[in-house]
Amino acid sequence: MEKIKVGIVGATGYAGAELVRLLLTHPYAEITAVSSVTYEGKKLSEVYPNFKEIAEYTLENSDTVIKKCDVIFASLPHGLSEPLAEKCIEAGKLLIDLGADFRMYDEKAYSDWYKREYSHPNLHKYAVYALPELYREKIKTAKIIGNPGCYPTSVALAVFPLLKNRLAKTEGIIIDSKSGVTGSGRGLTQGTHYPDTNEAFSAYKAGEHRHTPEIEQTLSDIAGKPVTVTFVPHLLPVNRGIESTVYMTLNDGVTKEQVVEAFKTAYENEQFVRLETLGNYANIKNVRMSNYCDISLHFDMRNNHVIVSSVIDNMVKGAAGQAIQNMNIRFGLPEETGILMPPQQF
Helices in the chain by DSSP H: which ranges? Predict the structure, then answer.
């Protein structure tokens, strides 16, 4: 088949650079143009020396990217993707947004948590929230793909079999998540400054993180009724990785065996979700640099609780890898095309 012409807007952010790294080896996609407002006119390799003599692309403006490409990946802060999406729709190009602009069904939820209104509300009828394992069929015909957030990806995959099969209560869900520093983006803040992060570990934005409504939206969709959660993220002193521990109360009479069977059934045909053997623990080290999500199940039957540990690489399954997985679905390619790399152990 003719190669898909791919463009990346925001190519110098962490997720944008990760898209470049992964797409360079995709057999059916060709990076045709990349853009950056901050570094326009420079070579990508001037910003990321690891791309020297490998990806010597000149950083252009976003209009040029849209003109040259069939698919545009947007790796931008929230509020910047809607104007880009309008241009893509007018040009008949597919937009895959790695930001937050097309993740929420409800404009009020977006406004409440992101403190801004939709600038182009009419565009949202074209958008699909694109977590492949849950919304594969909708992704196949999408004009705008809202790539899920990293924390919500880890949580939804951890909880899906429990809510789908009515095995656990929808009340009292507690989510304790930890992320590597790349989740904060490339811009330096005091909280991600090396002396403050190294050999440190703390919670942040407890109960008020912007991924909360996205998590609740997906879990409510699975459960068929409103679900609220207590979500507490933490910052790990590592570059990559997310570990989410989800605590839920089992419904009366539900056994360990039923829970284990539900997870096996839900994910037996999913390429990128792997279940740990009972007694083992999911570890971010075992998914590093890969598109896999590893899940382990644990039980506190004294209190009728199930504890699910879910790990992903926030830059791959939590961002660039999942975006490519969505592109593959949209173009009828095997989902694993270009992203079936084994995790890096060392």
Answer: 14-23, 44-47, 62-68, 81-91, 107-114, 132-139, 150-164, 194-197, 212-223, 256-267, 321-330
Number of domains in the chain: 2
Is residue 46 scored above 80 in pLDDT? yes
CATH number, domain of 324, equals: 3.40.50.720
Structural domain includes residue 337: no
Catalytic residue among 69, 88, 150, 293: 150
Tokens standing for residue 293: 């999500």
Domain range for residue 232? 151-314
Asked if 88 is an active-site residue, the reply is no
- Assign 263 a pLDDT band (cuts: 50, 70, 90): very high
Q: Are residues 187 and 288 in the same domain?
A: yes
pLDDT digits (tens, 9 = 90+) for 224-257: 999 999 999 999 999 999 999 999 999 999 999 9
Query: Which token pair is 328?
Result: 């593959």
Calculated CA dihedral for residues 263, 266, 269, 272, nearest 10 degrees? -70
Determine how many CB atoms are found less than 10 A away from the CB of residue 220: 17
Nearest CA among 232, 188, 236, 238 for reference residue 211: 232
163 shares a domain with 131:
no
Verify that 61 and 106 share a domain, yes or no. Answer: yes
Residue 182's pLDDT is 83
Do 192 and 269 lie in one domain? The reply is yes
